[in-house]
Design a protein that fits this description.
The longest helix has 29 residues, at about 35-65. Helix content is about 20%, strand content about 30%. The strands form two sheets. Strands 1-7-2-5 form a four-stranded antiparallel sheet, with no helix packed on it. By secondary structure, it is α+β, with helices and mostly antiparallel strands. A hairpin with a 4-residue loop joins β3 and β4 (about 110-115). The protein contains one helix and seven strands.
Length: about 150
């Protein structure tokens, strides 16, 4: 049997053709429907943004170079009172603290609770050294604290 084409008369309305705005069956790893035309554009934008940020960071590092004087200090307790290396603001970009002699407790002006045992070291990034206090972990057991850092 041959197919007979349908004849449309003036009285029958023609359905509007719907524009497909999203491809069918294409989803990203999160299961969200995607449009590859838009996805490629977004990926290109992200990649360019990443490149721009890397360029800016590289430029800043190049401008700064190796800057900042080396800070080195040592303090041995003579009492059990909290102490600090600096009484006025001394900002360090990076620092390493090592304890010898006896255990020490570190913290702020009010509380020193973080214990660092003999032979252990701790490190910080971007700290105002005048705000870092330390004291003997046990009364009468005087310890020594060594610090090595880079000033801002």
């Amino acid at each position: 049997m041959a197919k007979v084409p349908k004849t449309i008369t003036a009285s029958e309305p023609i359905e509007e053709v719907k524009k497909i705005t999203e491809p069918i069956g294409q989803k990203n790893v999160a299961g969200i429907q995607i449009n590859p035309a838009i996805e490629d554009t977004l990926t290109a934008r992200v990649d360019q943004s990443y490149v721009d940020n890397c360029y800016v960071e590289a430029s800043i590092v190049k401008m700064l170079g190796f800057s900042g004087a080396v800070y080195e200090n040592e303090d041995t307790a003579t009492t059990d009172d909290p102490r600090r290396f600096e009484t006025s603001s001394k900002k360090l970009r990076d620092l390493i603290i090592q304890v010898s002699g006896n255990d020490q407790l570190f913290g702020n002006v009010t509380n020193q609770r973080y214990k660092v045992a003999v032979g252990e070291a701790i490190g910080f990034t971007r700290v105002d050294l005048s705000l870092l206090y330390f004291k003997n972990a046990a009364a009468g057991q005087n310890g020594t604290v060594n610090i090595l850092g880079v000033e801002e």
